[in-house]
């Protein structure tokens, strides 16, 4: 499996700002960021993920142009999920936003903001962000874990990203064969049991109104049924992480999203299950950390790190 060595130029050697954008199902947000990681401006917009390509791209355009209007850009990077052709800057398979499949989004953004543009998988950019700006500084091997409405893991192994270009981030690994159907059409994907959508489904089945982990944890204090759901959710997250630990032994898992904001007890349940399932021991014994990046902006900052690492790319 190929990787990318992470090496960066000193921030002082660059001038201007970078445009970092993140495209999620139903939401696009972005920021204008200088090479030191300082945020100069932000914008965000929501949209219907089942809408047409024109509608989705119009939202992306409004965020991008609003941020780029008054700045000299050193580059632009867009993070997204799904299967991507990063060399050509194209969206290949986007289960939650099918209208974007085949879209040459990097060329579009480059022309729109008059700057070189890159497309990269959000899981890998999150690793870059952690390594350059966050809890992964000084680490050669670790895994960066996105939790909540999205799910994915990016892995840095001995200074290299372990992922093929445009590859998946683990959300669709099969962990519960022939059980819940995933939006990708398969059954038993990790995503079906380890995202906020699973918590909402449990709420519907139990007649509860809680729709995120924080509200489930509050109810769990007095309701044993809620406590059982929260415990199972922690174990579901650990199930996928244990597979990654067995294969790559990253040891350190940096949590982002709702698991990072949850109670210490929730994370202890993840860690206990992870250690029980993986049992690697030694220096690679699993351990958890939470993101140290304010606002959990690792993906946006990872875009800046990627541009610093690569240098300003050539215009297509």
Automatic annotation (TrEMBL):
Q: Which UniProt keywords apply?
A: Transferase
Write down the EC number.
Answer: 2.7.1.2
Residues that span the membrane, as ranges: none
Extract the Pfam families matched here: ROK (PF00480)
MF GO annotations? glucokinase activity
Q: Which InterPro entries match?
A: ATPase_NBD, ROK
Q: Where is the signal peptide?
A: none
UniProt record similarity statement:
Belongs to the ROK (NagC/XylR) family.
Name-wise, this protein is Glucokinase
